[in-house]
Write a sequence for this structure.
C-alpha cells in the first residue's frame, strides 16, 4: 500500500499564483523526495529533503518536512503554464534503497 | 550523457503470451527498479535489484519476474500476460549509497495493453 498520501488530488490555479501540495506518510523515513511527471512521460526528480532537515529550496520550489507530524509540503511560487504536471512525493524508509510513492497531485496552471 | 531507456515504448499482446520489457541504463547505477502506474494507484513497485544477480520482490510482484545478469539491464518478464497487467511500466535506477535511498532516474515508460 502507498505510504505517502498527497493532498489535494487535483489543484487548478491561475498562472502567477502559488501552488501548495501536501504529503503525509506513516512510518519513519530517511528522506522524502518530490518528483514531477508531465503527461505521457517518466518521472523527474525535483528535490530531496533528509529527515534531519526542515526546509529546502530549489529555484521556485520550497519543500518543508515535519517529521513529528509525518508530513511534507511542496510550494511552487509564481506558477507557470509549464508547471502543469502531476507531482508525487516518495518516502525512503530507513535501511532500504527503495522508494514508496504516493498517488500524486495533478496540478493545472491556467493562463 | 547518461540515460535510461525502455523498449518497446508501446506493446499490444494477447492474454497468455509471455512478454519481456527491456530496461537499459548507462548511469552505472547498482540499483534498478520496475514500477507500474495505474489510474488511482500511483506508482507501485514490482521488482527491484541492488546489483548483479540480486533481485527482490516488490509490492505487486505476482505474475512478473526479473533477472540481473549485468549492471546495465533489468528486463521485466510477464510469464503469462493477463488483462489486469495492462498498465504503463516504468524502469528507474539509482546509486547504491550508505546514506539511504538516493535520487531515482526514470525511463520514458512502456505502455502495455493485454487483450
Amino acid at each position: 500500500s502507498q505510504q505517502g498520501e498527497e493532498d489535494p488530488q487535483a489543484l487548478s490555479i491561475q498562472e502567477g499564483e502559488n501552488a501548495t501540495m501536501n504529503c503525509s506518510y506513516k512510518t519513519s523515513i530517511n528522506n522524502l523526495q518530490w518528483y514531477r511527471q508531465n503527461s505521457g512521460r517518466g518521472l523527474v526528480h525535483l528535490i530531496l529533503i533528509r529527515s534531519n532537515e526542515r526546509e529546502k529550496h530549489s529555484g521556485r520550489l520550497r519543500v518543508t518536512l515535519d517529521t513529528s507530524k509525518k508530513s511534507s509540503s511542496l510550494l511552487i511560487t509564481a506558477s507557470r503554464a509549464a508547471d502543469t504536471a502531476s507531482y508525487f512525493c516518495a518516502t525512503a524508509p530507513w535501511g532500504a534503497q527503495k522508494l514508496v510513492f504516493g498517488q500524486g497531485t495533478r496540478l493545472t496552471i491556467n493562463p | 550523457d547518461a540515460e535510461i531507456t525502455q523498449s518497446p515504448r508501446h506493446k499490444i499482446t494477447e492474454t497468455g503470451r509471455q512478454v519481456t520489457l527491456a530496461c537499459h541504463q548507462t548511469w552505472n547505477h547498482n540499483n534498478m527498479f520496475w514500477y507500474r502506474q495505474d489510474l488511482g494507484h500511483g506508482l507501485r513497485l514490482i521488482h527491484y535489484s541492488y546489483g548483479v544477480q540480486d533481485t527482490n520482490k516488490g509490492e505487486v510482484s505476482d505474475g512478473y519476474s526479473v533477472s540481473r545478469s549485468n549492471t546495465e539491464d533489468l528486463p521485466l518478464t510477464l510469464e503469462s500476460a493477463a488483462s489486469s497487467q495492462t498498465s504503463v511500466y516504468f524502469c528507474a535506477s539509482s546509486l547504491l549509497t550508505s546514506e539511504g535511498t538516493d535520487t531515482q532516474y526514470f525511463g520514458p515508460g512502456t505502455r502495455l495493453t493485454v487483450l
In short: The longest strand of chain B covers residues 42-51. Chain B has a mean pLDDT of 95. The interface with chain A takes residues 31, 33, 35, 40-45, 48, 50, 58-59, 90, 92, 94, 96-97, 99-109 of chain B (CB under 8 Å).
